[in-house]
Hsp33 family molecular chaperone HslO
Amino acid sequence: MVRLGAAVQTILESHDYPQRVASLLAESLALAAALAGSLKYDGIFTLQTQGDGPVSLVVADVTSDGALRGYARFDADRLARTGEGDPVPTLLGKGYLAFTVDQGLKVERYQGIVELEGGTLADCARSYLTQSEQLDSQVALVSQPPGAGHGWRTAALMIQRMPANQSGAPILTADDANEAWRTATILMGSVTPAEMLDDDLPAEHLLHRLFHGEGLTVWEGKGLQARCRCSHHGVVRMLQSIPRAEIEELRDEGGKVGITCEFCRTTYAFGDVELDQAYIPATRSAANP
């Protein structure tokens, strides 16, 4: 189970998203955190949805040390002409949902892709986990805009039916295993959005309320923080991958090139001196630090 309050508020308040777009990103952040929490990795887990709808791109990622960030890209005119409806077909349209685990250059990057199917992100995630990972899964997502003294809030709840041959798994007959899974899904289906977001109902208490009769074990929670990984050094490296002549065309009225991070909206400005330093060949830079 994942609950995000201050972290999702910090991420969303740096953007001016319409409420429907903000809600979609909030739930993407909660889903990314829930999926990442089920994995053992040292690096970055990224959840990306891309479609042909008015919201063309949503990205959320979380590092193994709990740094969370995300952003969405949308067409305001198309969004204004779009009626209400389930978020996937209405906002995202046709496209795909991708899961990526990047653990650095020494470990092969893992990526899973599934078409956008169903009405919600929860439907898409369940489809991927069931079809591609061969794990029966149930996912619930909920978000709430600011109000009554609180900022944006979002939550995710996910259960999975683990393989019977997994170490430590109970020995069950096929019928007993099927019945246990049916019971778990029914219990999960009883949870309400209000319960998932209730600050006065600790997550461990909610989980106990739902699953105490099923041999529940609760581990210590892990903190998540809104923290972008952009940096001046990273922007310089990006600039060096683009021909200097093309960069010159990006100068503003003040003669500077501004690069804005899409995640946190921090802008890095480069004048003549900064650009010269960025494009000094590595050998000259090392000789003349």
About this structure: Residues 282-289 have pLDDT under 50 and may be disordered. The two ends are 49 Å apart (CA to CA).
